[in-house]
Amino acid sequence: MKGIFETFHEGFETVVRKPERVLKKDYGAELLKDLPNSFFRERKFEEYRKLGFPVWKRMELAGLELPDFPPACTFDTNLQSVMDCSDLSLFESLDFPGSDRKYVLLADVFHTCGVCSALNGFGFMRMEGNSIDSSAVVVEGDSKLDVLYKSSFRVSNIRVLVKKGSSLLMRLVSLDEGFSISNIYIFLEEGAKVEFEILQVSLGKAAVAVMTEGKEGSAAKVSPRLGVKNGVFDSMFWSKAERESTVEVEGKGIVAGNGKMIFRGVMNINRGFKSGEYHEHFKTLLLDEKSSFEAIPSLFVADNEVSASHGVSSSPLPDDELFYLLSRGFDKQEATEMIAKGFIMDLEFPEEAADIVDRLF
Question: Where are the domains of the chain?
Answer without folding.
Answer: 8-317
